UniProtKB/TrEMBL annotation:
It holds the Pfam family G_glu_transpept. This is Gamma-glutamyltranspeptidase. Residues 1-20 have a biased composition (Basic and acidic residues). Residues 1-26, 543-568 are annotated as: Disordered. SUPFAM superfamilies: N-terminal nucleophile aminohydrolases (Ntn hydrolases).
Amino acid sequence: MASHQDSEAHEPASEPKPKPEPLPFSRFQSRRSVVYGTRGVVACTNPLAAQAGLKILEAGGNAADAAVAVAAVLNVVDPSMTGIGGDVFALYYDAATGAVRGLNGSGRSPLAATRAAVCRSVGVPVIDDGGGPGTGRIDEERAAATSLPRSSIHAMTVPAGAAGWVDAVEQFGSGNVTLAQILDPAVRLAENGFAVSRLSAYYWALAEDELRTKSPGNAGRDLLKADTTTQGADVVWRAPREGEIFRCPPLAATLRRLGEYGKNGFYAGPVAQAIVEVARAKGGLLSLEDLRHHASLPPDIHEAMSLPLRIKAAPGVVPASSSNNQKTVRLWEHPPNGQGIVALLAMGILNELERTGKIPPLASMAHNSAPYLHAVISALRIAFADAGWWVADPQQDKHKDEKHNNQLFDPQRLLHPAYLAERALLFDPDRALNHVPETRGYPQADDRQTDEADLDHLQSETLTALHTSDTVYLAVTDEAGNGCSFVNSMADLFGARLVPQGTGFALANRGHMFRLGPADHPNVFAGGKRAYNTIIPAILTEDVEDNTNTRTDSPTAGDHDAPQPPKQQHRLAAVFGVMGGFMQPQGHVQVLLNMHAFGMDPQTAVDAPRVCVGTNVFWTPDPAAQVHEGHVYAEEGLPDDAVAGLRALGYTVQWLRGYARSLFGRGQVIRADRDPVTGERVYAAGSDGRGDGHAVPL
């Protein structure tokens, strides 16, 4: 018998075969492949919701129509995370114009609420001034050190999700499908029932006790399952378990009413009355006037904020420039009161660190190595310090100083190159950035050089709000090339865990993100105001500047042969997002860099292990995932030597495993590519393995 060595010796000589590269996803929990499509893609956290989105696309709806259908089904199948009782933010890319517009669908505090009354309710001393319980002189030092508890009835805000859905369809929708058609898949699932998924069942159970007991008249039973199989009891009301069937006819009726009557079906009539009754029964100030006021406001539609990515891209990520065309990738985020500015600031600081040579190009670093993570963490910490002061209601954030008295704050000032350069100076390549000055001045926005930056003063402060990762993010693209980035949230698990009688949905408690002091804080509590909101969608575009010289046809032009300024066009590059409290901008930065700097495909980019920077004390229903200020949380799968390197730089790093990994959020990505031969559009999508969903092409 010939030996193995002998047999090799008699084989004909051939070129050695290159060893295959190890599959990148082999390091991660997910084993999913990239999903490709040409007519559109829906990516979300539940397959039933994705099917609803596809149904609307098939019926002639566009990406915005489908996004609302997906959100409505998620309200049914994952009610702890989202619903019409919560908030909505969306970005919509219009392929016909190249514009990226934002929708702010967040709720306000009751008009009758006052800071003095709220401070009294949580034990902050307020000296009576004779004006009644809503007035008085507040102990500002105590107020600044006190958070509004998420359990406080004063954390309840106007339920804005319903209006947000209506506005998204009316402002961005195709007009080919009605709101009733869009909500029909959700109505049918709520009526006929569905099998509960694993993660939904897990989080549902965490809120079971409060759903059972907190709402007057046992209204919370609408969101619980009647179990008649338990020995020694007639009926036990509990959270549905994985794989069990759950039905919610009251929610079906609410959604049907919204589809038929629009905003009036929710903000007036029996649904509105039930909302006010449950709030008043718990000592809240929410009124029918608050609901009418919200429904009467014009849709809050505006241009999104953006920042060009100047960091070097991985080979092949950005098409090579020709003599006539230059391409730049641009990140779009929702302006405040959402925290999208954090992602823009962090990317702007990383741009500056690369530009000045304080760090080597990120693309040249080892992915998730200690030096790479140190740069990302530092940029995020600086960005969060700014957000802690400046993210607030854009209609009430008035900065009062000698130069800019009573002007609405323009968050674009934070992205001025001189200001980004100033903040980038805080980075130390050899040491953890554990103390970050927070700007409380008014960032300059003129063209002076960095060394002349006129910043009033810097002060160290952090957010004191508590937050949880209870949100859904979804992404949709369509055949026309439109894209909708959509996020819907309850703030906490089932929000305030209060259910209006006979409606089948819970009310959100976003107001716990307000500051109670100091009085001049932009995000300080006030009646009729929107709080700092963590939920943010994102979009990437490829800016194409056509530098071809064109002649003007104007008879008044002085020089017909003079070249005209280049015309910039925004071409959709990706619709993406990562849900999960303060993790959201951190997820945006990390997933974006995975694709842009390291050339990862969408699925690998969302699968890759992440870090989470503890900006403050997070609240999360899972004690294993609680976050503390100054800590860095490392997801299992990160290299051991990277964590050791971060600790050597001075970081306090804690590993998170199992369900505690919920802290790192759940993301979706749909990238808009082109066939290299034909130029036809091809969508490439990935859905986070940390969730129950997937990406599905049309």
